[in-house]
Amino acid sequence: MSLYEHKITIKAWAEEDRPREKLSNQGRRSLSDTELIAILIGSGNRTESAVELSKRILFSCQNDLNQLARFSVSDLSRFKGIGEAKAISIIAAFELGRRRKETISPNRVQVSTSIDVYEAILSRFKDLNHEEFWIVVLNRANKITSSHLVSKGGQAGTIADPKIIFNIALENHAASLILAHNHPSGNLKPSHADIELTQKMRSAGKLLDIPVLDHLIISDQGFLSFADEGILD
């Protein structure tokens, strides 16, 4: 076997080039995306090191971490050397990053515009290939106290039950509510069902003295506010 045919494993690399040792000695910021993923998967396959396998995974999504974050267990398991356990490790790492962004600071977000709500809840809808319906609970000072997943469905839509929504609102002492759901298609135009549900929710909110202040449709391209568009009137 010639020198060029011989496969060099990560253990044979110079210590400063090995991902784990590099992170330990030089800090996490010294590592490339490829090297960080290599640490997550731990080992490669018979023909590739963990780093080479990571390069191939990233190449499949044009080196776009946002696209990689959308991969499912089955998507990742298509790569030779990535079994269910390694796929789950990658997905779990992305989910931790997402949840870190979702952490609400001790100072609650005060809502004065639809953009405030959009920025507060956007991370809930990141990397979703299906539709989810959330409610945002506000107190009397118009500060967000919590947000809750009500339902999730397929790419075409999800069903939100007003009884469940207002039960959550009452349990969390809501002074008012804001509705939010995503359109994975990227289309921000509200459907007839979206408008009908919003009207039903507004009517129920008036009876319970928990007004529905807005309904946001969110996509990767931005958002639409029913209040801003005058759809609530």
Low-confidence stretches: 1-8
Largest sheet features: 5 strands, mixed
- What gross morphology would you assign? elongated
Query: What is the C-alpha radius of gyration, as a whole number of Å?
Result: 23 Å
Number of strands: 5
> Which strands sit side by side, in order, in the main sheet?
2-1-3-4-5
Order of helices and strands: HHHHHHHEEHEHEEH
**Helical segment count:** 10
Query: Portion of residues in helices?
Result: 40-55%
Secondary-structure-based class equals: alpha+beta
**Percentage of residues in strands:** 15-25%
Distance between the termini: 77 Å
Describe this protein with a few key phrases.
233 residues, alpha+beta, 15% strand, disordered N terminus
Summarize the structure.
By secondary structure, the protein is of the alpha+beta class.
List the helices and strands and how they pair.
Elements: H1 19-26, H2 33-41, H3 50-60, H4 65-68, H5 73-76, H6 84-102, H7 114-121, E1 132-138, E2 144-152, H8 162-171, E3 176-182, H9 192-208, E4 212-219, E5 222-225, H10 226-229
Parallel strand pairs: 3-4
Antiparallel strand pairs: 1-2, 1-3, 4-5
Helix pairs in contact: 2-3
